[in-house]
Amino acid sequence: MSKKLIWVIVLVLVALGIFLLLRKEEVLAPNEELPAALPQEETTNTEVVNENLITYSDTGFAPSTLTVKVGDTVTWKNESDKSMWPASAMHPTHAVYPTTGGCLGSTFDACRGVLPGESWSFKFDIAGEWKYHNHLGPTFFGTVVVEEE
């Protein structure tokens, strides 16, 4: 094989890789609203006053386990410099929390990247131990324990 042909192949592969990375960023951190058919929980840019608060930073969720009562709402606040997407475990199906709907499997799903400074809330109506993860960084996860009143 000639050196020219090898360089052409390398350049094509590099260009393809860059294209795929840029396209992945667009898909993972959309700035547009979801279609009306998908249920959305409230997202705000205002300060969250809520004792059921989980913060997300560049090192993950804190606290990693939060205990609440049935009917309580939990708010995830993004204090990182990247988008987060809280969703029911297991990645990538999001189907562990038993109410179906949302965009992939369960209603316990933000269905989009939550931008830095924003927050997303979910009301837990079913008792149990509900694991969740950041769909945009699935190595970050936590648990919400929901107890009967």
Describe this structure in words.
The protein folds into two domains: 1-30; 43-147, Immunoglobulin-like (Sandwich). Helix content is 17%, strand content 32%. The chain contains one helix and nine strands, in the order αβββββββββ. A hairpin with a 2-residue loop joins strand 2 and strand 3. The protein is elongated. Residues 20-49 have low confidence and may be disordered.
The CATH topology of the largest domain, please? Immunoglobulin-like
Mean pLDDT: 79
CATH superfamily of the largest domain: Cupredoxins -  blue copper proteins
The count of helical stretches stands at 1
Any idea of the CATH class of the largest domain? Mainly Beta
Oligomeric state of shown chains: single chain
Largest sheet: 5 strands, mixed
